[in-house]
């Protein structure tokens, strides 16, 4: 796979060698159940709490406020379903946005079946939620708002501080899906007006199948998994210790490298655009021009359909995406691009490049050259 170029890190990332190394002993020697009182269990418990401390420190949170889950999806479900159910006697109105990940949207749709009402806020053409729309949507029975930190398809960073500050005044719970922003933006929950925040290990070079929900003190939540009393009775099930240790190591590596990664991703975006300008091909960058995550680059090449571009890139061993992994493979237009109300020719030719730690600026240049060749070949023929 060495001649392959992978630009789909928003879908998932490879496990960092240091992460694998940190995890291995917890799959072999230290296999105890953290709930057991004997030595094997105590050793596992110690590792679990050390991992919790590390991840909490990385996001400037109280370690006790972290609940480990089996994915970012589960963290979103726990926040939304658990947060709504705990408050159902207070009110049954929830607000989210049209551009959320399906883990949030489908959890909200489930709540609609359970008697909740959900308002799905629109976004502007940059993919940003407008505070004015949120203010208008709030009702006396609104109990929960969920707005993502950074969008996984176009990269737009939402006005989380403004939204959270407004909701604090109103006394309404605020959850943010920070799965995609975590690791590329500095997230310090103690300084953020959020009550719940979801993260996932496999988006930051940790293993798949581990996530966490930050839950501020005194925030009411009902568990969605029922069983043992793990995670202070908020998430039953024996902890994925090796995965959690890997998650912690991934945050450690990220902490050390974040600044360098971010500047590399910015240079990659610049390099790709320089190639396209030089080649004289038309392109349009989707998402917000400034409030955008450095690793997500969503670009349209009008005249070349998304699926055609992806297939042609795959032929030259370049992996990119149409946006969300869940909608690729189907020709259906992404709900995010739809919500942005771009012209059809723009949304039907959108490609998402998402960068990761092993990518180089040279790779970005070569990928951009490949794109330029494809555009020149296909648009000339048309
Ligand atoms: C990947 C992703 C998720 C889901 O996380 P998993 O750990 O894959 O379940 C949720 N939200 C966003 C924004 C994501 O990018």
Structure overview:
By secondary structure, the chain is of the alpha/beta class. The chain has two domains: about 5-10 and about 260-380, Aspartate Aminotransferase, domain 1, CATH 3.90.1150.10; about 15-250, Aspartate Aminotransferase, domain 2, CATH 3.40.640. It has helices spanning about 15-25, 40-60, 70-85, 100-115, 130-135, 160-170, 230-235, 240-280, 305-315, 335-340, 345, 360-380; strands spanning about 5, 65-70, 95, 115-120, 140-145, 175, 195-200, 210-215, 285, 295-300, 320, 350-355. Strands 2-8-7-6-5-3-4 form a seven-stranded mixed sheet, sandwiched between helices. β3, α4 and β4 form a beta-alpha-beta unit. α1 (about 15-25) runs antiparallel to α8. The mean pLDDT is about 95. Bound molecules: pyridoxal-5'-phosphate (PLP). The site of pyridoxal-5'-phosphate has 15 residues, from α3.
Descriptive terms for the model:
Aspartate Aminotransferase, domain 2; 382 residues; Aminotrans_V_dom; binds pyridoxal-5'-phosphate; Aspartate Aminotransferase, domain 1; cysteine desulfurase activity; three-stranded antiparallel sheet; 41% helix; 2 iron, 2 sulfur cluster binding; single chain; 2 domains; alpha/beta; globular; 2Fe-2S
Q: Roughly what percent helix?
A: 40-55%
**Strands of the largest sheet, in order across it?**
2-8-7-6-5-3-4
Per DSSP E runs of 2 or more residues, the count of β-strands stands at: 12
Portion of residues in beta strands equals: 5-15%
Organism: Brevibacillus centrosporus
Keywords: 2Fe-2S, Iron, Iron-sulfur, Metal-binding, Pyridoxal phosphate, Transferase
InterPro entries: Aminotrans_V_dom, Aminotrans_V_PyrdxlP_BS, Cysteine_dSase, PyrdxlP-dep_Trfase, PyrdxlP-dep_Trfase_major, PyrdxlP-dep_Trfase_small
Protein name: cysteine desulfurase
